[in-house]
Design brief:
Radius of gyration: 25 Å
Strand order of the largest sheet: 1-4-3-2-5-8-7-9
Number of domains: 3
Helix content: 40-55%
Largest sheet: 8 strands, mixed
Structural class: alpha/beta
CATH topology of the largest domain: Spore Coat Polysaccharide Biosynthesis Protein SpsA, Chain A
Number of helices: 12
Length: 398
């Protein structure tokens, strides 16, 4: 048999060139895949298989100077030291709308907002955040406050501040400190919440933090919290939300969430809940506040900083399938029966409120057949083979 070695050599060269080209395309074109998949696997492995990092020793200090800003405070890294522009220190006291003026605060709910987001605050007041609509029991109250900083543009600050003062005179529900309300000051907004709760509402049983584009199904949330109060734990040691485990820092300078190694040297973050919406019990809120006093808050990603504080305080997050994190709830009555938070409602807050309120009014014990039907519906909506930014498949069977 005659073999043309020259032909084989040429074929091998062609194959080598093609393979090199394919490899180059993969390395360049699939860089996001490496960032979002490989780095997560590597980070998760380090977090749980190789080493449980000592976040306490890495980040605990006595005091420090905020990145690009003034000293954070005289008593540690967590006290912001920023003066109040608007405050309502008696919000949790006896009087006030909707609570009846008696009883302990069951839920202190902070909504993180920006000065210019008046339309979103109005939508929340008109819907799920209206304290008069809260289905309360005798002896319990819910308080809702909007937390914000000052407008970052000096040219617009005076005008926007006058609008905010008028808004607060009408509603009495804004808490504002004098720091620029920007992405890189989200940690200051987080510290403000726990600082205010500690000083002005220390007896609240639960504290919630949510974004102003999040819909909170308050009746479902209160049922969940009341169940915890009746449990053996008595609702203590709680930090619940959509949990991120072993997540890596984003090292890509083009990303909004870029974190340098100088700022955060470890290869993974502590476990944390998505900042869009989470709940802590009153005892955990006190621990988090204590951690902010001794932990440097140069980490400007607020939910990550919350995870750092919780790690120092010895608190672990609990994952709940119906805290959506960054996801958005599917529109169906069987989903409404279980949902607690849904993210991404800048424009449809009223429509979702009407749909959930109608379902709540018609709520009754579904029985075994109704339960089976809703499980099937939720499985069809949530357990799809391709990724959907909503609740996980596990939520279908809760």
């Amino acid at each position: 048999m005659y073999i043309n070695f020259r032909r084989i050599s040429k074929c091998r060269c062609v194959h080598l060139l093609v393979a090199s080209l394919v490899l180059y395309v993969m390395l360049v074109g699939l860089e996001p895949l490496d960032h979002h998949a490989v780095s997560h696997v590597r980070s998760f492995g380090y977090r749980y298989l190789v080493n449980k990092f000592d976040f306490n020793a890495t980040f605990r200090i006595a005091a420090y100077r905020r990145h690009g800003g003034p000293e954070t405070g005289h008593d540690g890294g967590g006290t912001t030291g920023f003066p109040y522009l608007i405050n309502h220190p008696d919000k949790c006291d006896g009087g006030g709308g909707g609570g009846g003026g008696w009883g302990r605060v069951l839920l202190l709910l902070f909504v993180k907002s920006s000065p210019e987001n008046s339309a979103q605050r109005r939508a929340i007041r008109d819907t799920w955040g209206n304290e008069t609509f809260v289905p309360g029991r005798r002896g319990e109250r819910v308080r809702v406050l909007f937390v914000l900083g000052a407008h970052p543009d000096p040219g617009q600050r005076l005008r926007v501040q006058e609008d905010l003062l008028r808004e607060d005179r009408a509603h009495g529900d804004l808490i504002q400190q004098d720091f620029a309300d920007t992405f890189h000051n989200l940690t200051a907004k987080l510290v403000l919440q726990f600082q205010w709760a500690r000083h002005h509402c220390p007896d609240a049983r639960f504290l919630m933090s949510a974004d102003d584009d999040v819909f909170v199904h308050v009746p479902n949330l209160l049922r969940y919290l009341r169940g915890l109060l009746d449990s053996p734990s008595g609702g203590r040691d709680l930090w619940v939300g959509h949990v991120h485990r072993g997540a890596p820092p984003n090292r890509r300078k083009s990303s909004k969430y870029y974190v340098s190694r100088e700022l955060y040297p470890l290869p993974c973050y502590p476990d944390y809940t998505a900042g869009a919406g989470y709940v802590v019990s009153g005892d955990v809120a006190a621990k988090i506040y204590g951690a902010t006093l001794v932990l440097r808050s140069s980490m400007y990603i607020d939910d990550v900083f919350m995870g750092m504080c919780a790690s120092v305080a010895g608190v672990s997050p609990l994952d709940h399938a119906y805290f959506s994190g960054e996801g958005k709830a599917q529109r169906h009555p069987c989903i409404f029966d279980q949902m607690i938070t849904s993210h991404g409602h800048e424009t449809d807050m009223y429509a979702l409120w009407r749909a959930t309120a109608e379902r709540e009014l018609a709520r009754s014990a579904p029985g075994p057949l109704g339960d089976t039907y809703c499980v099937a519906v939720r499985a069809a909506l949530l357990c799809r083979p391709h990724y959907r930014d909503t609740y996980s498949c596990m939520a279908a069977f809760m």
